[in-house]
Design brief:
heterodimer, A: 312 residues, alpha/beta, Rossmann fold, 13 helices, 11% strand, B: 2 domains, 21 helices, globular
């Protein structure tokens, strides 16, 4: 029995050693499919940054301003103001006094059911274990922290193979592509339905105003003022096909959306720049990867225009 | 408590160490206590149910030995009603009542059925059959009734096989529980290897495939063509890995305590006939139905039409054992018909199988048939099953588009696809080696370094690639 137990211990030790080694390798070489690796190297004295969901993640590219400004993109796909707030709270020390914080407001940002009620929430929530302290993570569980933060290799699965084989990441390929390559009609209809209908209407067909997200936005603006940084609300550019589809799906939606934004602007005095109908983007497929997401070229152009507009 | 949970990882070593530390005369008590604790971790109330079935069958067996032939029949009938009645109440009552009401509606008689909202006790289909087989064996005079209630209770509740089999025969398991034994390292090592292999099949292969199967079967109307065929194929692999994985863990756990359970799976997917398939798939259940249903009905020692009737009824009941739904009845019925046809055309089939190509064709037919019937097994209802069958060839007239769409709508990228191929390859290779010769024996003949390396690699694969985020239940727990 003693010999048997010793063999088991040796076995467990060997397996543990191998897994720890693979884990260390994966932490440094794993694919960054959840866009969290950038948080390992947040610069100091940031002068311009943005929060936001996929419209923030893909809509802001600061490459043309490297050397001129210290910039950072805090955007992550499907991120709503409640998590924008937590990220800002956690990383605001990296901002220089007088820095500009762009806060992209998408059609789904302030409406609809809570984050936790959306299908796939737990899966998306895992990325925050890596970049936020545990108090800031919604529905924090220690075992999830184990799989995502301390031993990410345990939840990597086939990503281990992707990391081992150096191929161009699918995401960057998409970001470089043009919207004319996709089925634009179907894409914009699906996007607008998703943003305007799914999870945004109650059983009587009324719009659900998400008070948690609205409050989070107010808090971000308040915190920016306390930190002496300049918050600027922004609606990113879209193709005209997309804005047409939104009007088709829900003719009253724009009134509700802009009504809410007007109230926020009036109460806080925050600046708001709306580029959703901007002619410099609305009909330029070469600047978009789909109906409402800029590609890399579009993101660079957008940032140029934004910086020009805010410093005029 | 699931085998693939943290709780079990702590539970098993404690039981293992205590088992070998205790003198033999107290081990039955440890097994019984551990098994009760294991069972109560699901729902504490239902411990009374399993102990009730145990007590009834224990008393009935003792009474059988003291009774005359008329009394024996009454006792047997009473036990069967008690055991099967419990099963009926929890598992089949709602189904029968619902269908009775639907039938009466055809005659314009409307009833308001009473629906029993009872949670199906885990393992009830397995331990009631195990208890019933014990009483029947005593009735037949094949074994003596067990006088020690503790040993008998430990046999019925034995935790490794309690909730999803193998359904053990008294003559095989009870003597092992009763007999003193000393620790055997080779047996314990084999047990650990089986547990590891079971975890690989369940947590890595079955749970990964389940992600796709559940997604597609959960929204069938959104899919067609090759996607449906792939989902059906994935389910065939999923259920095998899930169930045989469980059995491997159960058998391995028992080996740690020096107890051998019956083999429940013997590489069934390499079978070249339906008959062979059922000698390799869920062996403990199929042999139970053979010994306690098919043979008492007359078996094959009667006229052809009666033999066919016996086969059909046995498979129908076997299907129904799996669940109270028409889909399981259809599944069982199809297998009954297949066996009848195979018996009828036995000679030409054997002739075909004399050639290697014929063996391959036979294997292909059997595997395809199993895939076909498992569509009914997995579907929520007959309509869903028919939808899958009706639409799985949509678009096949354009083969390239058919293949592309099948892959695209499954929602996997090339790495996920390669990963799945890799898993299926490991599974097939090991099962094939087991089909020809037991894979664990095969590894044992190689050098220690190779053997250790392979099992360390397997352990790493299980830890890295097992689906996490909550232990996923075993499919056969629902039966």
């Amino acid at each position: 029995m003693k010999k048997f137990l010793i063999k088991i211990l040796i076995y467990i030790f060997c397996v543990g050693l191998l897994i720890t080694s693979i884990n260390e390798w994966y932490k440094n070489n794993g694919t960054d499919s959840d866009n969290t690796r950038k948080f390992q190297s947040v610069p100091e004295n940031i002068q311009i940054c943005n929060l936001g969901s996929s419209h923030g993640l893909y809509g802001f590219c600061y490459e043309d301003f490297e050397g001129q400004y210290t910039c950072f993109n805090f955007g992550m796909s499907q991120q709503r103001p409640s998590y924008d707030l937590k990220i800002f709270q956690n990383y605001r020390q990296a901002l220089q006094e007088g820095a500009v914080v762009f806060i992209p407001i998408s059609h789904f940002s302030l409406f609809g059911i809570s984050d936790e009620s959306y299908p796939g929430f737990e899966s998306k929530n895992k990325r925050y274990y890596k970049i936020l302290p545990k108090e800031a993570v919604k529905n924090y569980h220690f075992d999830t922290a184990l799989y995502t933060k301390y031993f990410p290799v345990l939840s990597a699965y086939e990503d281990i193979f992707r990391s081992a084989i150096p191929l161009q990441e699918e995401e960057s390929k998409e970001w470089s592509s043009m919207s004319s390559y996709i089925d634009l009609e179907k894409n914009v209809l699906m996007a607008s339905e998703r943003y305007i209908i799914a999870g945004q209407l109650d059983e009587n067909g009324g719009r659900i105003y998400n008070q948690e997200e609205i409050n989070a936005l107010y808090q971000i603006i308040e915190l920016c003022k306390e930190s002496n940084v300049r918050p600027i609300l922004v609606t990113a550019p879209c193709l005209s096909e997309y804005t047409d589809a939104v009007r088709q799906i829900a003719p009253d939606f724009e009134k509700e959306f802009y009504g809410l934004l007007e109230e926020i602007v009036n109460r806080t005095g925050v600046e708001y720049y709306d580029y959703s109908y901007d002619e410099r983007f609305a009909h330029h497929y070469e600047l978009f990867m789909d109906g409402d997401h800029l590609n890399k070229d579009g993101a660079k152009k957008f940032v140029r225009i934004l910086i020009q507009d805010i410093y005029e | 408590m699931l085998f693939n949970s943290f709780a079990y990882i702590f539970f098993l070593p404690v039981v293992f160490v205590l088992y070998w530390l205790l003198p033999h005369k107290y081990r039955w008590f440890l097994l019984l206590a551990a098994s009760c604790y294991f069972y109560m971790s699901w729902n504490p109330k239902y411990i009374f149910l399993i102990l009730g079935v145990t007590a009834i069958s224990y008393c009935s067996a003792l009474a059988l030995e003291k009774s005359g032939s008329k009394g024996k029949k009454i006792i047997l009938l009473f036990t069967a009603v008690a055991c099967l009645g419990t099963l009926f109440l929890f598992k089949y009552f709602n189904f029968f009542l619902e269908n009775l009401c639907r039938s009466l509606e055809l005659f314009s008689i409307r009833l308001n059925p009473v629906t029993l909202r009872l949670i199906l006790p885990v393992g009830i289909s397995f331990y009631t059959f195990q208890a019933l087989s014990y009483v029947i064996d005593v009735y037949r005079g094949d074994i003596r009734a067990e006088r020690h209630f503790g040993y008998y209770a430990a046999f019925i509740t034995f935790f490794p096989q309690l909730v999803a089999g193998p359904i053990e025969r008294t003559s095989h398991l009870l003597p092992q529980i009763k007999s003193p034994k000393s620790f055997e390292e080779p047996k314990a090592m084999d047990g650990l290897k089986m547990i590891l292999w079971g975890y690989f099949k369940k947590m890595v292969v079955a749970d990964t495939l389940a992600l796709y199967v559940d997604k597609i079967y959960g929204g069938l109307e959104s899919y067609n063509g090759l996607t449906l065929a792939i989902a059906a194929f994935f389910f065939v692999l999923q259920i095998y890995c899930d169930f045989s994985g469980y059995s491997s863990i159960a058998i391995g756990t028992s080996k740690l305590m020096g107890i051998d359970l019956a083999t429940n799976f013997a590489s069934p997917y390499f079978s070249t006939s339906i008959k062979e398939f059922w000698r390799r798939w869920h062996i403990s259940l199929s042999s139970w139905f053979r010994d306690y249903v098919y043979i008492p009905l007359g078996g094959s020692r009667c006229r052809t039409w009666k033999r066919n009737r016996n086969l059909f009824l046995t498979f129908l009941l076997s299907g129904f054992w799996h669940g109270a739904d028409w889909t399981f009845l259809v599944w069982g019925g199809l297998h009954g018909i297949a066996q009848i046809l195979e018996n009828t055309f036995h000679k030409p089939i054997e002739k075909i199988k004399q050639h290697k190509a014929g063996i391959f064709i036979s294997w292909l037919v059997v595997f395809a048939f199993w895939n076909f019937t498992m569509i009914f097994f997995r579907a929520s209802n007959i309509d869903d099953a028919l939808y899958v069958l009706a639409h799985m060839l949509d678009g096949i007239s354009s083969p390239m588009e058919y293949i592309h769409n099948g892959y695209y709508f499954l929602g996997i990228d090339k790495f996920q696809f390669l990963y799945l191929i890799f898993l299926i390859f490991i599974l097939s290779a090991s099962d094939y080696s087991f089909y020809k010769k037991c894979s664990f024996d095969l590894l044992h003949t190689k050098s220690k370094a190779v053997e250790w390396g392979l099992y360390i690699a397997l352990g790493v694969i299980v830890v890295l690639f097992s689906q996490k985020g909550g232990a996923a239940e075993f499919v056969y727990f629902q039966f």
